[in-house]
Amino acid sequence: MKVFNTVLSILLIIAVAFLFWKVYETPAEPEKPSASAEVEQRLKDGGFRAAHIAYVNPDSLTKNYEYHKKLSAELQEKVKRVEADLASRSKVLEENFSILQQRAESMNQQELQEAQMDLERTRQTLIRYRDEKTNQLALQEQELYKKMKDDMDTVLNKIKQEYQLDYILSYDPTSIMLSANEEFDITPLVVERLNRKHRQQKEEASTKQP
Question: What is the pTM of this model?
Answer without folding.
Answer: 0.62
